[in-house]
């Protein structure tokens, strides 16, 4: 098992849900973790919940590359290295295509797709130095289309394609690149309120375990695209 102690990770959308759970998993391994969110309020709440000096909170909108460059600069100033990046920030707006607004479309493309590009562009030179790991959080919606999902499908199909191509570009530098494609996860996504009704779903900490598995994989092996779904579907 690899020793991850004092390695540095950056997680976008790390103030709640999957990002928060992954951060906690990595902290439990002795890593130092930077999390970002779009508001100071969300960042402050997460920092209070983590209650450790091993977490750096940053306000950043991944739709703006300047924000992501600033985030990486703060991480490098504080810890001098960057070993793992999880591009996790995402949004979902679901509506028939004739009813979807331009604002809803652009929000998903700007955050879900352009956001992973911005995060990678901001961090890639730092990852080259550590031969680090870049992971995107896509979705099963990145290969499975569904009604009222045109915008979300477009963004997540794009994330899967972007990540796989980036993997081919960056492995020459010793950088590993993977995309994780979860199905239903018990989070606040799409205005859900997680409770006992979500017990059948993937839990956020399960994705944390999956990220940890990737980081501890033998250097010669790269699981580049990972689909993950609940073991049993909901009984309706």
TrEMBL record:
InterPro entries: KR_dom (IPR057326), NAD(P)-bd_dom_sf (IPR036291), Sc_DH/Rdtase_CS (IPR020904), SDR_fam (IPR002347). The keyword rRNA-binding does not apply. GO terms for molecular function: oxidoreductase activity. The keyword Oxidoreductase applies. Keywords: Aromatic hydrocarbons catabolism, NAD, Oxidoreductase. It comes from the Bacteria. Residues 7-189 form the Ketoreductase domain. Belongs to the short-chain dehydrogenases/reductases (SDR) family. This is NADP-dependent 3-hydroxy acid dehydrogenase YdfG. It comes from Maribacter aquivivus.
């Amino acid at each position: 098992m690899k020793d991850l102690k004092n390695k540095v990770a950056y997680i976008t959308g790390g103030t709640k849900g999957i990002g928060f759970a992954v951060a906690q998993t990595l902290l439990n391994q002795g890593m130092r973790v930077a999390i970002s969110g779009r508001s100071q309020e969300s960042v402050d709440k997460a920092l209070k919940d983590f209650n450790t000096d091993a977490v750096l909170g940053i306000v950043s909108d991944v739709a703006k590359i300047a924000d992501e460059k600033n985030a990486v600069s703060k991480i490098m100033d504080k810890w001098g290295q960057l070993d793992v990046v999880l591009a996790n920030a995402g949004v979902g707006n679901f509506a028939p295509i004739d009813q979807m607004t331009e604002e809803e479309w652009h929000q998903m493309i700007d955050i879900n797709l352009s956001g992973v590009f911005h995060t990678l562009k901001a961090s890639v030179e730092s990852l080259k130095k550590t031969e680090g790991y870049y992971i995107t959080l896509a979705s099963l919606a990145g290969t499975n289309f569904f009604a009222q999902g045109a915008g979300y499908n477009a963004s997540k199909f794009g994330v899967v394609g972007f990540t796989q191509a980036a993997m081919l570009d960056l492995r020459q530098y010793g950088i590993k690149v993977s995309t994780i494609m979860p199905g239903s996860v018990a989070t606040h996504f799409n205005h859900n309120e997680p409770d006992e009704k979500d017990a059948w779903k993937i839990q956020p900490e399960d994705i944390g375990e999956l990220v940890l598995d990737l980081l501890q994989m033998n250097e010669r092996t790269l699981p580049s695209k990972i689909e993950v779904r609940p073991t049993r579907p909901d009984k309706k």
